[in-house]
Amino acid sequence: MALARTRRNESGMNYWPGFVDALSTLILGIIFLLTVFVVIQFYLQQEVAGKDTALTRLNAQIAQLTELLSLEKTGKADLQDQLAQLRATLATAEGERERYKGLYEGAGAGAEKAQTQLNTLSGELEGQKKISARALAQVEVLNQQIAALRRQLAALETALNASEEKNKQAQGRITELGQRLNLALAERVKELSRYRSDFFGKLREILGNRPDVRIVGDRFVLQSELFFDTGKADLKGEARAELDKVAGALIGLEKEIPSDIPWVLRVDGHTDVRPISTGGQFKSNWDLSAARAISVVQYLIGKGVSPERLVAAGFGEYQPIETGTTEEAYRRNRRIEFKLTEK
Known about the structure:
The chain is 71% helix and 9% strand. By secondary structure, the protein is of the alpha+beta class. Strands 1-2-5-3-4 form a five-stranded mixed β-sheet. α5 links the parallel β3 and β4.
């Protein structure tokens, strides 16, 4: 009687798995969206990092040019101080010349000596004038160098501003691209969810309301006993008839889903936790579950389902849906699952 009540309960309409299916699909789509967004942002950040490196080099050049400009200004100040000293010396020499000239005119006896001193001072004065002329020429050269440095600083500042503007534009493009990806992926997730619901609904209609066929979350679950004998991976005769129905529904689904939506039907094989004992044909439950999933996929391909729309996966005993150690728990864990998902 307990088994009869269990079958009646399982045959009733249950909306909760459909809600979990939609919610799981939405979460998977959001995760995929965030993954694509992080990858794109990573490459754009690499580009921005390269520009930041260029900005760092430009700033270093600006610092070097600023230091050179400071040194040139210091040298200019020193030359100006020397020029001032030379002018003061020149003024002193001219005063001495005038003084000796007066002495020459006022003293006839010392005229020859004064003339000699005057000639000496005149020679020194000419030498000082030449030194002053060279200092003025150096000051002019320094002024030209300072002007060139200022032009270089202006060019570097312009380049820096342009680079900062490009960085702002790149950040704007990253934000815009992220928003567009969010919208596109959300739309794809919504559309694929609708097709998944339709496909599982058709499978339910085709396979009938059977106790060994049920929906768990976002997966369509069939018991392994429906497909295989114990410890075997060869399809049973009655399993082929059921898989023919699944193949027909899947071929119809291929025609309905737009070609730009990347999707696959994943066929998962599961076993119970008890060790396998098949005389060496399979080394572990993992091998057995993978071989069973591959048998189902190969049969569907033989019925016309596109190979690129199928994935075979074996999970062995490592993802049970029942944690008990009863025979019923073992039976429920031995299963084949169909999961419609994105590539």
